[in-house]
Automatic annotation (TrEMBL):
Cytochrome-c3 hydrogenase C-terminal domain sequence ranges: 201-273
Compartment(s) where it occurs, according to its Swiss-Prot or TrEMBL record: Cell envelope
Record-linked Pfam families: NiFe_hyd_SSU_C, Oxidored_q6
Organism: Rhodopseudomonas palustris (strain DX-1)
GO MF term set: 3 iron, 4 sulfur cluster binding; 4 iron, 4 sulfur cluster binding; electron transfer activity; ferredoxin hydrogenase activity; hydrogenase (acceptor) activity; metal ion binding
Name this polypeptide is given: hydrogenase (acceptor)
GO terms (BP aspect): anaerobic respiration
Known EC number: 1.12.99.6
Amino acid sequence: MGTFDVLWLQAASCGGCTMAALEAGHAGWFAELARFGIDLIWHPSASEETGDQAVAILDRLVAGEQRLDALVIEGALLCGPNGTGRFNMLGGTGRPVLHWVEALARRAGYVVAAGSCAAFGGVPMAGDNPTDATGLQFAGPARGGALGAEFRSAAGLPVINIAGCAPHPGWIVETLASLALGGLGPDGLDRYGRPRFFADHLAHHGCARNEFYEYKASAEELSQQGCLMEHLGCKATQAVGDCNQRGWNGGGSCTSGGYACIACTSPGFETSQGFMETAKLAGIPVGLPLDMPKAWFVALAALSKSAMPNRVRANAAADHIVVPPRSYPGRRP
């Protein structure tokens, strides 16, 4: 069995997705790739080849002289000015990154977007978007992007969007491993092209603050332990991802670190007005859990708050446990 050959290019990117990938596994990213027979043909930050050597690799791939099993793009594609793509040139080639991506995508067995910028346009697309930044197959939530809504790779799949800012390193490795082993097909992707092994979960699942959420015991300051949804902008009940079920950098997550989930796996997350503030209408958060009717949520919230134990109320407004769990007389601790 041969290797699964992957080319990784960076477009309009901060490099954070590469930094995330490098944290993959106890043995490191390269060892994880090798476990599944994945060969990294070239990566702008991690490969030895530079200059003419790197350009020669790209030329061979575009000409079909070298197999390209998967093309991974990190960062948004800059289509400006006026559709030329010349806001983002690939050094030493005289050609825009956009043109290279279009040519390579036609040769690739699979095309993979690493991160929400490559998937949906992300941060470079925010605001007035003077560079005409876009994702590979989505511009925000709208289908299209640099490659067009109808694009399919040689294997017959749309762009596979490993969304996140940055995506979990496990999502990156597991997606590439699934492709290398032939285990990711159309049914394995959601409507935004995100692999369902992580996109069928919510960031809320496994959150260490879930007891506070259940009783609607809310934090009002970042240092407090309570739920971050009601006042501090947390979107974990609306954001796809198993972020709180697998550790980041050895065990952390946004909410366990005291920071609200900003739904970075979702198209358009960068347009949020105030990441640390919950938008409300008549005192009710506008962004409610994805699969809960509004009336149910309001009724449940009122009931939960009325049943809130004093322990939970006290701990929610503190920066550490001030009242530990205690049993009633006659009950086991």
